[in-house]
Amino acid sequence: MRRLSPRLLPLLAAAFLGSAHAAGPNISSLNPAKWHAPTATRSREARDANDQLRTALRSGDRAAVDAAVRALRSALGRDVSVPEAKTDYLPPSADALSLDDVEKLWLADCAARVGREPWDAARAALQAGHAPERLRDSVRMIEAYFDTARLLEDAAAAEKLRARALDGLRYLQSVQTKSGAFGYPYDAARTDRLGQMAAERVAEGQRLGRTMTEGVWMIEDLDHGDLQFDNGVCGLALLSGYALTHDATLLDSARRAGEWAMQRPLVTNWNYNAFSARLLARLYLVTRESRYLDAARRKFELGVLPGQTETGRWLDPHNARTQYHSILATALADYVEALAAAHAPEEPAARRALELALDNLAAQTRAFGPSNVHEMLPVEALARGLAVCGDRVEWRAALIMSLRSLTPAICQRFAREVGHLPEPIPLGLRTLLAR
Fold first, then answer.
1. Conformation bin of residue 185: beta by default, left when phi > 0, alpha when psi is -120 to 50
2. Would you give the DSSP letter of residue 184?
3. What order do you get walking across the sheet with 213-214 strand by strand?
4. Within 13 Å of residue 76, how many CA atoms lie on the same side as its CB?
5. Judging by DSSP bridges, how do beta strands 213-214 and 217-218 pair with one another?
6. Which strand (E) or helix (H) includes residue 119?
7. CA triplet 323, 329, 335: central angle to 5 degrees?
8. Whole-model pTM above 0.90?
9. Residues 412-433 pLDDT 10s
10. 322-342 and 377-389 are packed helices; what angle lies between their axes, rounded to 10 degrees?
11. Phi, psi (5° rounding) for residue 214?
12. CA–centroid distance for 161 within its chain
């Protein structure tokens, strides 16, 4: 195991200094002392503006999209960029773990998962004739194994994790639908929230005469955009596997997911658009085929960037939440990387949007403490931003604070409630080691 502390003492100092001197873009709407439950989103004016945005996105006209965003912003009023739910921050604690301890805990947690990963449980469910859990659960562990393998100095242990991750990718390939999409689990007999959501959507589509399912998978979301989440992350995981193995079947599966993503309409939830856009950007980086960048450009320039405000936050209360803000920033990092590789004229503006998003996220973290700790999506966003944009002291400080939020009490809570630590941990550690 690598020792982190000697290389990170200057960064730890920056993190502690940053926590005491928060600065940056306007984050007043994220202040827990000033947060209010948004109300204007339920107004008729806001609903009309959202309908206007939906029509504009279908038209592909950027001027119409911008006009609809202005109308929505006016309708939201004081609720612009106010999260729909109060953010749950973890202020700095005297019990915060060192980065060495975070690494040790993660490696132990990771080792305990080998042989009981989500894809093994999913295979068992399929063999029993039941719908498995969502594919994103497998994807998170696949990506975490790849990142952990890069942390390890023990070659045999690293290869074991890569082999397990590749087994997870084989599971993903085995359930990819004929359309190329990675679907959403559907079981008419399932009564939990996941099952009810799928059942309601399938029933709605069937009333409209649409083909909604393929086996145990829902393959149509009726243009709500839900399916773009799992399809996007599955495609990205396949590309990670292809980068490691150069197995053409993995790239072919990712291409098929990308082709499906290309055909999906833009929706009013910016982060759903971002999942497809990010997959297409990475397909361009892998293949250098301009059609993927063209498709990514359309989705980002119409379906992601117009919703960002001058503070770096997205304007609607849903995407103002830290987890969705982080998803959008992570996707933007891939877009910037793709544009830079193509020497595209949109690159400076996209880079500035990414910087605004991460400046805001870092300022929020340093002012109030880490949030979304159970998923650590800010860790992924900050790590990707540092990889694409280069060193930023404030971003590194926020990344360190996020990783060190794992107090013994928090780790015990994770063990009790979800059974494991958040999967972006090794990416965060690897990013800091690279510096």
1. beta
2. E
3. 184-185, 217-218, 213-214
4. 24
5. antiparallel
6. helix 118-127
7. 145
8. yes
9. 888 888 889 999 999 999 999 8
10. 20
11. -140, 105
12. 22
